[in-house]
Amino acid sequence: MIDDSLSILSVSRLSKRYAGGHCALDAVDLDVRKGEIFALLGPNGAGKTTLINIVCGIVTATEGQVSVAGFDISRDFRKARSMIGLVPQELFIEGFETVSATVAFSRGLFGLAPNPSRVEQILRDLSLWDKRNSPMMALSGGMKRRVMIAKALAHEPRILFLDEPTAGVDVDLRRDMWALVRGLRDNGVTIILTTHYIEEAEEMADRIGIINRGCIVLVEDKDRLMKRMGKRQLTIQLHRPLASLPAALSERGLTLTESGDALVYTFDSQRDRSGIADIFRSLADNGIDFGDLTTTESSLEEIFVSLVRAP
Amino acid sequence: MINYYGIRAIYTMEMARTWRTLMQSIASPVISTSLYFIVFGSAIGSRLMSIDGVGYGAFIVPGLIMLLLLTESISNASFGIYMPRYLGTIYEVLSAPVSVVEVVIGYVGAATTKSLILAALALLTAQFFVDYDIQHPIWMLTFLLLTAVSFSLFGFIIGIWADSFEKLQVIPMMIVMPLTFLGGTFYSISMLPPFWQTVTLFNPVVYLISGFRWSFYGVSDVSLAVSLAMTLMFLLVCLVIVAWIFKTGYRLKQ
Ligand SMILES: Nc1ncnc2c1ncn2[C@@H]1O[C@H](COP(=O)(O)OP(=O)(O)O)[C@@H](O)[C@H]1O
Ligand SMILES: [Mg+2]
After folding, report:
1. Residue A20, phi then psi, degrees to nearest 5
2. Residues pairing with A219 in the sheet
3. Which of A110, A234, A238, B131 is 20 to 30 A from B203 via CA?
């Protein structure tokens, strides 16, 4: 269990049914720790945006509670929202507004006094300073997305939500964005990003939550998940089925399949492979003939697919 | 606790939109007012008798200003809140630590400011065509302000209700324009047959124009108190609807 004092976002029994009757979230519980990068991973339509939008006050929940640093998002909405910055999935812009005006607007909207040097710093960090007087419609797609990020950072949030931040984003922006995210994390900002790219979650996150059909199916430290992912399986097809596994083989960690015609060895792909040589020696010692050898790697992708497959 | 900077941010952004479109914003009231005066004030009006002792050209000034104030307040405010909904930029306001009241003050305040500026321009323009005087300037400003605020609120409601550009236009065109024309902009309702006088009393715009005209010339179709009461009532109704909209998230949140 997570120590409550470390949890900066706490979601409990959160459900959302849209007007059409579609259940986008089904009694979701989630805790995000202060200062971590949390990736919410799930296929399209899983409910990621819905979850974020409820926390940010854009969508109203059907049931359940959300608190941000202990502040309930409806009762203490001012305190809760002041801490949150949101970069939405889509580019929402007013084309005639200039870059600096729209960033200054965001800062003011969140209740902070104007601070031109702070805004300048944000624009420079995002390579937007040269474009500060351009109207938004004159910017490229990548630049517009940078502006969305600048707007979200304008009020110096303690929690930053990035909804599908790299969907359709070029390599430069992707690299800059991750550098920025790491910088923010170093300054104690909690980052919650959604993605349907596994590599992205892998690359960035400290912890990963997997969501599917409105349910959180797994939340785990990335490293632990990676260890699972690092597992390889060697399957040894036998010429003659075995009734039972010789003790010498089970000691080495082999298991017999139910049908008895194959042996399975699960091992850590990062470690050296000396174990495998021993296994073959044991097989020979026990007079076991074998045919096909196959190895499979259980990737995060696989874990993901098995978790989210329709029941 | 009031998010003062939040109100200011919304207001400033809305006013920036106004300044960006300044030329067309200014041109419209100046041109339309001039046209009304050329047609109704000078051309036709010169052949008409004075009404209640006021020359026809001067008589229509308050009504024309009201016409402009109503249409501008509604269109500025409805457009002001409809556009962010349409573009999706409303997400930011919904996610910000601003209360309903603050959002309304920002948007409605900016729409009110703009329509007051335009009304002032129209009044100046009218000066070129007719002589008019303002006997009760404080009351004149009071009616101007109350009407601009009420109808900006009304426009705000339309801008939230509308889910297409057509709907944005339909109420101003189909309801507000006719009510204003029939509400005594160009005539005194005492000139109507008794039956139509009674019907006209159901038109809320009659009270606005009547009170406003009284502040100019000291003559009115209905008493000042009734005019004021009706204006305040309209303001109250709009406030209640706006409060309900934000409480329920109607058309703003899913
Ligand atoms: N405004 C809406 N009205 C009705 N259904 C919606 C609405 N927004 C999203 N949904 C549905 O809710 C589900 C979750 O959507 P969303 O949260 O956007 O998923 P994700 O961000 O994970 O792709 C989807 O099935 C989607 O069709
Ligand atoms: Mg989404």
Report:
1. -70, -5
2. A209
3. B131
pLDDT tens readout for residues A196-246: 887 788 888 999 999 999 999 889 998 887 776 666 778 899 888 888 888
B110-113: Cβ within 8 A, 24+ apart = B110/B10, B110/B11, B110/B14, B110/B15, B110/B18, B110/B76, B110/B80, B111/B14, B111/B73, B111/B76, B111/B77, B111/B80, B111/B152, B111/B155, B111/B156, B112/B73, B112/B77, B112/B145, B112/B148, B112/B149, B112/B152, B113/B15, B113/B18
B192 CB within 8 Å of a chain A CB: no
Please say whether the dihedral angle defined by the alpha carbons of residues A175, A178, A184 and A186, taken in this order, is positive or negative.
negative
pLDDT at position B173: 84
Q: Is the CB of A207 under 6 A from ligand 1?
A: no
Of B20, B89, B98, the CB nearest to A92: B89
| Domains of chain A by start residue, with CATH | 9-226 (3.40.50.300), 230-309 (3.30.70)
Report, in angstroms and rounded to the nearest whole number, the Rg of chain A calculated over CA atoms. 25
Rounded to two decimals, the pTM is 0.85
Give the number of whichever ligand sits closest to the CA of residue A59. 1
- Is A246 close to ligand 1, i.e. is its CB under 6 Å away? no
* pLDDT < 50: residue spans in chain A: 1-4
Alpha helices in chain B (DSSP H): 4-20, 22-36, 56-87, 90-95, 100-127, 137-161, 165-171, 177-180, 194-200, 204-217, 224-248
DSSP for residue A309: S
C-alpha A51 – ligand 1 centre gap (Å): 10
Pocket of ligand 1, candidates A26, A30, A41, A49: which has the most ligand atoms within 8 Å of its Cβ, to mutate? Answer: A49
Tell if the CB–CB gap between A93 and B83 is shorter than 8 Å. Answer: no
Q: Which residues of chain B have pLDDT under 50?
A: none
Q: Does A57 touch chain B (CB under 8 A)?
A: yes
Residues within 5 Å of ion ligand 2, judged at the Cβ atom: A 48-49, 89
Structure tokens at B227: 């005019």
Determine the pLDDT at residue A1: 43
DSSP bridge pairs for A39: A193, A208
pLDDT for the residue numbered B135: 93
Pocket mutation for ligand 1, best pick of B94, B163, B253, B254 (most atoms within 8 Å of C-beta)? B254
